[in-house]
Every structure is written in C-alpha cells, then in structure tokens.
Amino acid sequence: MSGMIDVHCHLLPRVDDGSSSMEETKEMIRIAVEDGISNIIFTPHIRRPWLERPMKKVTDAFEQVRTWVREVYPDLGIYLGSEFDYSTSVLQETPEKLYGINGTSVMLVEFKPNDRFERIERGIEAVEMAGYDVVLAHIERYKCIVSDYSLVKRVLELGVVIQVNADDIVKPAGFSQKRFMKKLIDQQQIFVVGTDAHDTKYRRPEMREAYHIVEKRAGKEYAERIFCQNGRLLLEGEIG
Questions:
Q1: Closest C-alpha to 25, from 76, 82, 64
Q2: What is the predicted pLDDT for the residue at 165?
Q3: How far, in Å, CA of 226 to CA of 139, rounded?
Q4: Distance between CA atoms of 60 and 68, rounded to whole angstroms?
Q5: For a Cys-Cys bond, which of 79, 117, 123, 238 suits 86, CB 3.0-4.6 Å?
Q6: Where do the domains of the chain lie, and which CATH numbers do they carry?
Q7: Whether the bond into 49 is cis, omega within 30 of 0
C-alpha cells in the first residue's frame, strides 16, 4: 500500500473532544505512523461548545504539533482542516468561523445521526451556496440514509463526495450498517476514508485493517484510491 492519508481526525490537543494533551497527541501520531498513515489532516469540530474558541487556539496547537512532528517524524505530512457540524446560524451569522481543508474551499460537513434527509439535503445546498465543496462526513452514521440506500444517489447528485470511518468498515454498528458499508464498497461510492480518531484507546487513528478489507472486497486499485490518492485531491482543493 502507498502512504495512507487520514482525512478526518481529532488529534490536536485541547481544542475539542479529541486529544486532551500534547502527550496524548504524540501517542496518537505514533499509532498513526506505525499503522502506515503518511499524512494527517486535523479536523477539529466547528460546533458548540467549541464554537467560541479563538482561531488562534487552533493554529497555536497546530504549530506546536508541527514543530514536534518536524523533529520526530520529518516525513509525516500534517495539514489543518475542520469538521463543520451544520448550522444555519453559523453560516448566516459567523461565516468567519469556517475554514476548509488546507486552506481550500473543501469542507468536511457532518450532521446529527437522527437528522431527516430533508435537513441534510438543505444543509449541503446551503454550504455549497456559501462557496464550499462538501465532503459528507461518516455517511454511515445517518440513519435515514442507512435505512434507504437510494438516498446515497441523491447525495452524490448534489455534487458531494462521501467519507466513511475506518472503524465502521472494520466493526460496523449492527447489521444495517454492515450491509450499508458493503454496498458502498461494492458500488465504489466511497471517496475517502478517515479515522475520526479521538483518543488512544477506543477511537484510535488506525486504517490498515480497513484498507485490507476494502482491498479484499473491491480490489487494490480502489483501496489505493480511497485510502491514499483521493485525500491528496482534497488537499489540493478538488473533490473529483
């Protein structure tokens, strides 16, 4: 496998509900590197209660991590992005809170697991109208889409690309999600995979096992695309 790109994780220390310290961040990066991850896009949450944090807190944490990475893992690429929990009020009242992946217009967007599809559809359209290209975070968590696979097509017709979590490929949460993930892989509708890692125990930054599952089911070419190649497109501001 080529170097994998983690396009979705919460490894920055003390900026959201992910890493709680610089020491935990260092251990999470060690886990990621040993697992074969060569590039990491940090995606701290844009949502309450962290909505009011100054951007400087995020950039200072990123610079602290980058200084350490340069010394310890000089070949590891790290980049800053965000994960926007869709909110009309943020788009309308505080659009300056939003920032895309690596300074581009590509935005990782999430919704609530129980949101109706109508809200997801309206939200995607609103983010796009604000000038962003949307990567839909962990589509396998939205119950309305998992229960009606035809909605995947409607999502793609909106010009969105799909991200899934590596853990949900390895250990799906129940039969419905397992069946849903198999369809996504078989129909090659996943664009990128991320870890959505939050800690060193329960939500670790690991992708290798998920890569091998996809490789076995859909072939090496597709696995390389969604774990390694398409993440580079996001860093360049492209979604396909």
A1: 64
A2: 98
A3: 15
A4: 13
A5: 123
A6: 4-235 (3.20.20.140)
A7: yes
Question: Distance between CA 239 and CA 24 in Å, rounded?
Answer: 31
Q: 214 near 169, Cβ under 8 Å?
A: yes
C-alpha distances (whole Å) from 59 to each of 97, 175, 199 are 13, 40, 20
- CA distance readout (Å), 237 to 108, 120, 135, 230: 12, 22, 11, 11
Mean pLDDT across the stretch 77-85?
98
Cα(170)–Cα(191) distance, integer angstroms = 17
pLDDT bracket for residue 1 (50, 70, 90):
low
Angle between helix axes 175-186 and 208-218 (nearest 10 degrees) is 60
Mean predicted lDDT score pLDDT of the chain: 97
Round to whole Å and give the CA distance between 133 and 33.
29
CB 207 within 8 A of CB 6: yes
Q: What is the pairing mode between strands 77-80 and 83-85?
A: unpaired
Its sign, for the CA torsion 83, 88, 92, 94, is: negative
- Contact indicator for 155, 180 with CB cutoff of 8 Å: no
Q: What is the mean pLDDT of residues 181-193?
A: 98
**DSSP H or E run through 207:** none
Confidence of residue 240 (pLDDT cuts 50, 70, 90): confident
HSE of 75, CA atoms in CB hemisphere, 13 A: 9
Length of the chain: 240
